[in-house]
Backbone:
């Protein structure tokens, strides 16, 4: 016996990927992912730049 009250195939447009991706939720997901990736790359780049410049000799614990 099938359950006709809950059509799985057409739920939220998952049967057509482009339709879902072009919707508000799809665009919001893509924008969120882009922001996360850009912030991640910026943090990694800044971290690598600090490591490449060497230790900060003006820090109080490094003065001799």
Residues:
């Amino acid at each position: 016996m099938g359950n006709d009250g809950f059509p799985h195939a057409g739920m939220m447009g998952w049967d057509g990927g482009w339709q879902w991706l072009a919707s508000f939720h799809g665009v919001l997901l893509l924008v969120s992912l882009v922001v996360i990736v850009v912030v991640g790359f910026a943090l990694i780049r800044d971290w690598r730049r600090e490591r490449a410049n060497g230790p900060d000799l003006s820090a109080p614990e490094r003065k001799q």
